[in-house]
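Q: Given only this backbone (182 positions), what sequence would you predict?
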């Protein structure tokens, strides 16, 4: 009597309680694994990551550091670093440089697979082309959003703590009143 071994396709064809059902291959929404893989591919490009970090965080550190240094050396000529005009100027600067960094990151993320010749191998797996392209959006945002949050929190902290303190009282018609009195 000859016993045959079951093939791999017959054993465990139905998902059991400990196994998850695999997502549909042709689905147009990217899976979490696809997004994290694309994020890892982008993060491994050191030159791109250095460029993005320098474009987003470095102008904020440079301008705030110079303003703090100038105010520490000559406080009568240079105002405090926490001026509301500084906050507005740095917010605009972060928006401009952030746009350049996002464009550089998006261009690199969008062309990596095509330029390396890997995209056709990814399509052969049965993944939707749309899912392969859409996975790049959250992967890029997962890199940009923390950097922008870091730069914006630095601007908020320096402009709120290194500024001129608000007066506790305001003089109105010779009377000293609390500032926030309605």
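A: Predicted residues:
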């Amino acid at each position: 009597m000859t016993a045959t071994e079951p093939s791999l396709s017959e054993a465990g064809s139905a998902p059991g309680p400990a196994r998850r059902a695999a997502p549909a291959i042709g689905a147009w929404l990217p899976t979490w694994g696809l997004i994290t893989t694309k994020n890892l591919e982008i993060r491994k490009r050191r030159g791109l990551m250095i460029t993005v970090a320098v474009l987003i965080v470095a102008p904020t550190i440079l301008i705030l550091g110079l303003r703090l240094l100038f105010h520490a050396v000559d406080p009568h000529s240079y105002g405090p670093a926490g001026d509301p005009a500084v906050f507005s100027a740095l917010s605009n600067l972060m928006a401009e440089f952030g746009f350049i960094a996002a464009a550089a990151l998006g261009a690199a993320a969008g062309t990596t697979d095509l330029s390396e010749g890997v995209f056709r191998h990814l399509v052969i797996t049965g993944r939707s082309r749309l899912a392969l392209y859409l996975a790049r959006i959250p992967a890029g945002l997962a890199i940009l959003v923390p950097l922008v949050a870091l730069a914006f929190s630095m601007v908020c902290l320096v402009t709120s703590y290194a500024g001129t303190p608000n007066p506790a009282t305001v003089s109105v018609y010779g009377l000293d009143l609390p500032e926030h009195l309605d």
